[in-house]
Design goal:
It is built from 16 helices and 14 strands. The protein has about 500 residues and is α+β, with helices and mostly antiparallel strands. This is Protein nucleotidyltransferase YdiU.
Amino acid sequence: MNTMDFCGLQLHADDAFARLGAYFSVRVRPRPLPEPRMVAVSPQAATLLDWPQQLLQQPEFLALVAGQAVFEGIEPLAMVYAGHQFGGYTPQLGDGRGQLLAQLRNSKGELWDLHLKGAGLTPFSRDGDGCAVLRSSIREFMASEHLAALGIRTTRALAVVDSDMPVRRELTETAATLLRLARSHVRFGHFEYFYYTRQYEQLHQLMDYVLEQHYPECQTAENPMQAMFAAISQRTAELLAGWQAYGFCHGVMNTDNMSIVGETLDYGPFAFLERYQPGYVCNSSDIGGRYAFNRQEEMAEWNLTALGQTFTGRVELDALRETLAQFEPLQSGFYLRLMRARLGLVGGEAGDQALIERLLRILQTAELDYNGFFRQLSDADDVEQLLPLAASCVVPADLEQWLQDWWARAMPAGSDNHSRQQAMQAVNPLYVLRNSLIQEAIEAAHRQDYQPVQKLHQVMSQPFVARPGFERYARPTAPERQGWPLSCSS
C-alpha cells in the first residue's frame, strides 16, 4: 500500500487487483473528454472514501472524472471476464469502455474500487467505441444513489461529466463519463472466463483474492471455498429480496452483470414498478421476458448455478447443490422480513405470508401505484382514512377487507399509532425514482441545464422524509407514460 496526494488529501492506494498479474487485466489510459462539464456529484458517496465535499468542486477532480488525468503512480486497468448473456455463453467480454482507475482504502481499512465508465477504447471493446452517453450515465448515477438510500446493496456513483463530443447510438448523443465506486468489480463472469478457458491456476488465484479481500470471515471454515460460495449466495439472496420488495427491475441479469460481493451492478434498462405487474419486462431487447420482474429470483439462482460450476474443482458437488437449494428459502426469508417492515408488522405471525400474497394479488388487479400504496399505509392515522382507496379501485370489497385485516394485525390493542407511522415511514419512500422523472432531468441536461439532475439526486438520496417544494416528485407517473421499455444502448 502506498500513500499519494490528491487535492491536498492523503490517499491510501492498494493495487490488490493489479497484483494478480497480466492474465487478469490490461493496462490502459483513459481517453480524455474535451471541454468537460460537471453534471452532478454525490457527497454521500464521497464520504465512503473520507473525501470532503469541497474536493468534489476542485478542477483536479473534474479532470479525473473526465479522463484527463489519473492518480499519480497508478496505471488504470481494463479487466477481462466472460459471461452468460440471456442464457448463451460469450467466452470473452471485459471492460470495453470502463477502467479501474485505482483501489483505495478508507480510514476503516475498507477497499474501494474507483472505476471510470466511458473511458475510451480498450482491448475488450470489440465493435464498441469505448464511450458512454450522457443519458445512461445520468441513469446509473441516479439509480445507484437511490438504491443505496433505500438500503439495497449497490455500486455507488461519485460524479457524472458531460461534453460536446458526439456519439452515435440510435440517435447522435453526447459522450459522458461516470466515476463509480464498488467494494469490488469482480463479476460471476470473471470466474467463468478462467474456468472455461481452463486457466485453473488463475481461477484459483482469483478465488483466493476474493476470499482474502471480500470474505475473510470464511478463511477459518473447514472448506473456505465452500463457505465463500455459500456467503456469495446469501448476499445475492438478500440483494434480490431488496429488489423484489421495492419493485426494482434490473433488466439485464447476465452473469457478467452479477457482482461477486452481492451489489447491484451495471444499470442499463432498469425500472421501478409503477403499478404492480409481476410479469413486467423493462428491457425492449428481452423479447422472451427472461428477466421479467417475477423471474429475477429464478435468474439469480440460475446465475449462481453457473458460478457454482466454476467452484467444482475446490468444492464437492453435493455441497454446491445444498447451497443452491438454500437460495430460495433464504431469499424468501429476507423478502418476508422486508415486507413485514414495509407493512408495519412487528414480530412474526403465521398469517403474514398469506396477508402479503393477498395484497399483491389485489394490487395487480387494482392498478394502484405500488410504492405509493405502502407510503399511504404508512401515513394513515386510522383505517377509515384508507377506505377511499378501496372505493376507487376495481376490487373495492377485496381491498377493503384486506385493509381491515392489515390494520388488525399492524395495530393490535394498546399499540401506538405514531410509533407505527414513524417505523413505516422510515422504510417506505415518499419519493421513488421513476423513469419519467429521470427522462425529464436527462432532457434538461441535453440542453446543458444540469440543475434538474442535481435536484432529482437531492430528492432521491433522501427518499423517506417529506420536504416542502418537492411534492411533484412524490406523484405517480401519468398512466400513458408508464411502462415504456428501455433499450440496452448506452
